[in-house]
Amino acid sequence: MKMHFVRTTLILSQVVTSFSMALADKPNLIVIMADDLGYADVGFNGCRDIPTPHIDSIAENGVKFTSGYVLYAVCGPSRAGFITGRYEQRFGFERNPQYRPDDPNMGLPTDETTIAGSLSKVGYRCGVVGKWHLGANEVHHPLKRGFHQFFGHLGGDHRYMPEELTIKDSAAATDEAESYRTWILSDHTPVKTTRYLTDEFSNAAVSFVSSNKDYPFFLFLSYNAPHTPLQATTKYIDRFPNITDKKRKTYAAMVSAVDDGVGRVLSKLRELKLEDNTLVFFLSDNGGPTTRNGSRNTPLKGDKGDAWEGGYRVPFAARWPRGLPKGQAYNQPVSSLDIFATIAALSGAPTDPQRPLDGVNLIPYVTGKKNGPPHEAIYLRMFDSQKFAIRSGDHKLVIPARNVKPQLYDVTADVSESTNLATENPEILDELKQKLDAWTGELVEPRFSGLIHTPAFQKKQKNANRN
Ligand code: CA
Fold this sequence. Notes:
CATH architecture of the largest domain: 3-Layer(aba) Sandwich
CATH superfamily of the largest domain: Alkaline Phosphatase, subunit A
Strand content: 15-25%
Bound molecules: calcium ion
């Protein structure tokens, strides 16, 4: 009896030890997502007028993905795909949601699993700081979707200056314009913030890292910058005396504030000796809306909202000293879908077999253990505008607008999509069209009406068309 007890205790303690060792070995994950940042607006993609040394340090000490795609050319659907690791068109999140605290269907379906939901099952502490934009109803709140901490706003387009955040209760905002002015939520508690919003988010991110240093953690640092409204403090604007274009100047200041925040998070990792085993991704949620916020996507064609490369190929880099090479450029197409698949593979986090991930673990591809491209193809559908794209190898088929014939580009040789190769290559066009059709056959229609269906949005569109 006594022996049995001793043996049980021993086995139990071994289990506990191996569990805690496994926990210590699991890499932390930080995903820093900028909002509406142009492809060309980081130093690692050649930006000259806005220094981004801290963002660049992720690429310099890790990997720069030159063909990194997101799942949609506007915010909400792109984020829904990233956070579930699945094409969001599979579950009907294909529009920017309206801000509707009263509507449990206006957001990420609750039967989908988020990265946080999966990682929290293997001991991770998960936090989101910044923009959520995946639903404003209680069922969509980050704390209901696998996260343990939240500091941010539930909708999009938030204003940056503390004196403009005048609505205490997020649920009391009755339309989109009001939702941009709500107090920031700390979990469920409204907080009267006092600083420029980007700085508030950087502070919260640093504090999340400090307070969760003894766990494996996942931080989704979801800056709403440099999305409009274009607002920055003189501290950041004064860094750009040589930029004369007013829009670009404020935009540069906003990007610079994000870069400072990235620097502070990286420095905290270093200070806590967590740098070696923390996987950090940096990306934008969609391409730059160049005329709206002064961003640039060169040499890519098109803007936010487009099926051209400028709509959904974004600045994309990752750093993980323990497992990734340093200073490498990786040119095969990758996707924000791959972030979930990568961390699930590294951590042993469970995923839902009924809802298989669309991404792949990137690590063996980047380290050369696996050859060939990670994806047979990368897809895009934008239901309301009937824009489509499929990238497979060097080739891309694109339907850039409703009822326009499919076009074909070699986006490796012709990254600006300037020469349509469709007529000379009917076989390639046909093959890509068949793959695209097979993929769209797996999708559902959008499950909720979107921001585009609100009277305010329609009025704005009408005015824009008139101008
Ligand atoms: Ca965006």
